[in-house]
């Protein structure tokens, strides 16, 4: 598709070959949408983000102008989220804000001036990297009385989840002097 073709013909008999005809006019095979890409095959796994890698499919006569990527928690791609407008030279794309403890499936489609390819097969299931929370800031004084101290603290800004939604509990320790806290 998209390539100029020229033709000639000649005939033959039991006595020999005839001469070649004149060359035909230019002929073209019409370009078509790209072929279905292979399933995404490589993943850079980070906390809350997965960088998805794929190979470009055959463009079938019209250069690829972009890609769409979609992901879902089920291989049938029910409730998939679609990321559109990925550039034509891209072969990888980061998918941010993914949830820990969840596996995701990924598909890609290619686009050219004629149309869209079918979605690729779904990738293998992939989950984000699990990391412990980052160090928290020191507790602050909220209130005090003659017999009690109330302290407060903020969740870590990077709890291995970027939003702290998976923090299960906190442990607060105290001592009667900073040198006594040796954890």
Question: Please, could you describe this protein's structure?
Answer:
The model has no long low-confidence stretch (mean pLDDT 88). This protein starts with a strand and ends in a 31-residue tail after the last strand. The chain is 0% helix and 32% strand. It is mainly beta and 183 residues long. The chain contains no helices and 13 strands. The chain is rod-shaped and about 120 Å long. The strands form five sheets. The chain has a four-stranded antiparallel β-sheet with strand order 8-7-10-11, with no helix packed on it.
Low-confidence stretches: none
**Radius of gyration, rounded?**
30 Å
Distance between the termini: 70 Å
Question: How helical, in percent, are the residues?
Answer: under 10%
Strand-and-helix sequence, N→C?
EEEEEEEEEEEEE
Spatially, the strands of the biggest sheet line up as 8-7-10-11
Q: Biggest sheet: strands, sense, closure?
A: 4 strands, antiparallel
Total count of helical runs of at least 4 residues = 0
Shape: rod-shaped
Overall mean pLDDT score? 88
- Given the helix and strand composition, which structural class is it? mainly beta
């Amino acid at each position: 598709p998209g390539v100029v073709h020229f033709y000639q013909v000649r005939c033959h008999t039991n006595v020999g070959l005839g001469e070649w005809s004149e060359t035909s006019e230019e002929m073209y095979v019409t370009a078509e949408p790209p072929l279905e890409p292979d399933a995404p095959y490589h993943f850079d796994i980070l906390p809350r983000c997965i960088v998805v890698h794929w190979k470009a499919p055959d463009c079938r006569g019209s250069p690829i102008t972009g890609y769409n990527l979609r992901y879902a928690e089920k291989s049938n791609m029910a409730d998939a989220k679609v990321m559109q407008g990925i550039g034509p030279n891209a072969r990888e794309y980061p998918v941010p804000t993914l949830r820990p403890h969840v596996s995701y499936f990924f598909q890609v489609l290619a686009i050219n001036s004629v149309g869209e390819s079918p979605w690729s097969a779904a990738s293998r299931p992939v989950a984000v990297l699990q990391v412990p929370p980052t160090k928290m800031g020191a507790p602050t004084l909220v209130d005090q009385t003659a017999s009690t101290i109330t302290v407060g603290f903020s969740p870590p800004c990077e709890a291995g989840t970027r939003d702290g939604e998976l923090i299960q509990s906190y442990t607060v320790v105290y001592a009667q002097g900073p040198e006594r806290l040796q954890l």
